[in-house]
Amino acid sequence: MQTLYPDIHPYTTHRLTVEAPHDLYIEECGEKNGIPILFVHGGPGAGCEEWHRRFFDPEVYRIILFDQRGCGRSTPHCHLENNTTDKLVADIEAIREYLNIKQWILFGGSWGSTLSLVYAQTHPERVKALILRGIFLCRPQEIQWFYQRGASEVFPDHWQKFIAPILTANSGDEQQTALDNILESYHKLLNSNNELQRMGAAKSWSIWEGSCSTIQPSKSVINHFSDTHTALSLAQIETHYFMHNSFLEENQILNNMDKLDNIPGIIVQGRYDMVCPMTSAWELNQNWPESRLEIIANAGHSAKEPGIVDALVQATIEYGKFFK
User: Which residue(s) pair with 75 in the sheet?
Assistant: First the structure.
């Protein structure tokens, strides 16, 4: 079974000013003349972590990581102005031009799979291949599953903690009204003038996602999701996007799969993914003849689970040989 490569440090970092007021953090690791590959993180709003560099052979790949608008080391933190899907797609293209890359591979999980697919459909001539995990197509049924009813049936204990800020902020009949539209209720809490209420809601929102991401409880995953800096950007940016249907047209990704003709892809999906259930990965694969679906029998959503790590590293090895 493949494991992550050893720790690696960037050989250079960049700050790229895009549309005001956003300034992006970018780093490069590995082989300067290697196959360019872009790590597209999840959320939206999660940011990159140091271990994200380790899916790739540093002697084969020019490894590029960046933090999307409003999160991680990009600034300003949690900023929602000019923060939409098409803006993030434009940022990826701006990074490619800034780094003088003709074509690259995109590697994205969860929301990172969404953004990678939308970018590839917008700029297919710039994409060598896609490696995607935990497919999220940003359709209403996916939001309903995780934030209204679905995952709640599997994790009722975590769900009770998730809805606690809503119950605390409302009383009487207002509680049920608020629970009938949890996304809207959280959006209201996360834009409250009460800093304690806002921060408490952000942590509850983020920890819910972390708690459901692995089959076995993972302290490191929960620690990441409960980090104040991460929780605030994840919660505020996710609710901002989800309140606006992720700034996508209805079923946009599946309706535009013809634009990925001749672009190969490997889809890695945990069988028991409770955050992004396997239906979306299945439908994506069925509509993308050039893709291969790898179903990991003993995994959920997290890229840290051993079976997911194995499949993703295997995918980078395969494309490293193919595009050598």
Answer: 23
Asked whether the CA dihedral 137, 256, 92, 322 is positive or negative, the reply is positive
Give the pTM: 0.97
Name, in order, each residue with C-beta under 8 angstroms of 181's C-beta and a sequence gap of 6 or more.
Answer: 148
* Catalytic choice (67, 91, 273, 310): 273
Give yes or no: 180 in active site. no
Ordered domains of the chain (ranges, CATH):
12-139+247-322 (3.40.50.1820), 141-246 (no CATH)
Mean pLDDT of 93-121: 98
**What is the token pair recorded at 61?**
């790949």
CB within 8 Å of 120: residues ≥ 6 apart = 106, 127, 130, 259, 260, 263
The catalytic position among 224, 301, 302, 310 is 301
Cα 214-47-281 angle, rounded to 5 deg: 50
- Calculate mean pLDDT across residues 1-19: 97
**DSSP class of 205:** H
C-alpha angle with apex 21: 96 to 194, nearest 5 degrees? 125
Indicate whether 217 pLDDT > 90.
Answer: no
Total number of residues shown for the chain: 324
The answer to whether 300 and 159 are in contact (CB under 8 A) is: no
Please give the Cα distance from 207 to 179 (Å, whole number): 18
Catalytic residue flag (residue 301): yes
Average pLDDT, the chain: 97
**Which of 308, 239, 210 is closest to 44 using CA atoms?**
239
Q: Which of 22, 52, 67, 110 is catalytic?
A: 110
For the question of residue 273 being annotated catalytic, the response is yes
pLDDT band per the 50, 70, 90 thresholds, residue 152: very high
Lowest mean pLDDT: which of 35-39, 57-61, 80-84, 171-175? 171-175
